[in-house]
Amino acid sequence: MQSRIQVLALLLIILLVGTSSQAQITLPKVFGDSMVLQRGVKIPVWGNASPGALVIGKLGNIQATAKADQQGKWQLKFPVFKAGGPYVLEVAESGKPASAIKLKEILIGDVWLASGQSNMEWQVQQAKDASREIANANFPEIRFLVVEHSKQVKPQPDIFAGKWKVCDTTSVKEFSAVAYYFARKIHHDQNIPVGIIQSTWGGTPIEAWTSREMLLTSPITKARTLSNDTLAPDREDFIQDSLNLIKFWYLIYNPQNNADKIVPAAEYNDADWTSVEMPKLIKDFRAGSYEGVAWLRKKMILPDSFLQKNLTINLGHPEMNYSLYFNGQEICKNVWNANPSHAYTIPARLVKSGENTIAVRIAMLWGGGGLNPADDIYITAGAARVSLAGKWLYKEDLETALPKIRNYQYYPTVLFNTMINPLIPYGIRGFIWYQGESNAGAAYDYRTLFPMLITDWRQRWQQGNLPFLFVQLANYMKARPLPAESEWAELREAQTMTLSLPNTGMACAIDIGEANDIHPKNKQEVGRRLALVANKMVYKQEGITSGPVYKHYRKEGNRIRLSFINTGAGFSTKDGKEVSGFAVAGEDKQFYWAKADIEGNEVVVYSDKVAAPVAVRYAWADNPECNLVNSAGLPAVPFRTDEWKGITQH
């Protein structure tokens, strides 16, 4: 028996030795053809090989070596390179030329990691002037690596998927619009190659992007992070959630029960459908929330002058995923606002005398859905217009119900594990970040969580206080007639407070949001403002990079005088009207709109309703009406002088 065990053990050793001797050298997916490597630092390259093997790397004519450890892991570092290229990277085990990996068309420049939720993820093809921007996107020295979505309960050594792409009219469509416009300006202003590693996931909170170790240091996140220990990669509901997510989006994008052939037809019987007034959001007339696919139908007689002509139909601003049908024929399939204008051509051959039928299939997600009441909906034939407002018919549950999703991507640290950890220690110039919408309900905690994330990432990259540039939340939601408390204002305040960390910079977007869209289309200006901050903070260029920032105040009777920095050559208003956006309060903490006078680089604020003001707030709302700018046209950063307890403070 003992001899049999010894024989089996020997066979096992031989098998393991044979396997290890055949091990192939590998690189993680963050490395690839057409990548950009970071200038000005020792360039790390890492991977796996046979345990103990000598790994030889060559970048251009420069060689570096490293020895693989007992697990086969190795890391080598090339010396500092200046911007330039293209180069070839070769990596091989010593004595095994057949094992060599060769990567081509590599540039040396500045690499920025772009991360956050949907406003950073929002694609060029979804944003403002998409067609024109895509047509002009020919920048061979701008490259993107888009990290595909993935979530895991343990840190991973490699990203799930992703490939470096050269920026051109084909590839740019799916790049982050903010990151692209940032990269384009940096490339133009600094005349260097720019690489963007885009690691984003819409709707996600900051906790998902932070490491477990860092989250355990705060009582805010410790308990929930520890609760993740009940998760496991092979746990049934974790696996099922991923499968459900695939099925969920399949059902969104693919009509079920032959609905797209049956429901849009003119002869379809919609007698039992609910009558609704459009344009309107579904949540405004439906009791309770609904998540699924719903249908809208409308029959109408068009003027004779519309016959035998190509028509244009405009749906205003529907939910992001929808399809439009006219007399039974599909006119468009809009996926994630691929056509932000929501205007489409109806071919003349489809237009009938008498009754015409319009049908819209809408994915009702996250409490949205319907046709936005802020927009006109109509059909035009040249200058003639027919409104589509009024009676429509509405029906749910004509298709397969969407599976329930637990959204594990919202859980603490699961995105750090798969979409950040595998990128470390790739050489980078810094970070750009657009996130916070999903944390607005706990904005006070963001004062702690945001600096935690910045510190966490910097410590792990071990490149010192890497520049961390971020976007302050844009204005959004319905404007309120009177001063009021605001979760979004408190989140913006937490972001501003984070500027106390060294080497951080913020782009204010309080003037370029949209009341009815959490994803404002003007990503060009967001990217430009981020690049302005980088130009001064990182690249040491002169210039105004921020709007006015509140510094201090002093009382003058029934008035308060405010001082600012970053005023440039002086204040003005964006629209040329009187200054708006200020509110004052007395000891009773009741705020009233205030008048504001510009006096040099100061603003004097007062209200007839507040005899003894003690506090001032500016742009303190979800969607404030504010117009104060500096000589560079950059908006004043929202602020308050008081420290009264907010609505998100425990």
Automatic annotation (TrEMBL):
**Source organism's superkingdom?**
Bacteria
For this protein, the record's InterPro entries field holds: Galactose-bd-like_sf, SASA, SGNH_hydro_sf, SIAE
Is the keyword S-adenosyl-L-methionine in the record? no
Q: Does the keyword field hold ATP-binding?
A: no
Cross-referenced Pfam families: SASA
Q: Where in the numbering of this chain does the Sialate O-acetylesterase domain appear?
A: 110-228, 427-531
The protein's UniProt keywords, in alphabetical order, are: Hydrolase, Signal
Residues of the signal sequence? 1-23
Instruction: Identify this protein by name.
Output: Sialate O-acetylesterase
| The species this protein was found in | Chitinophaga filiformis
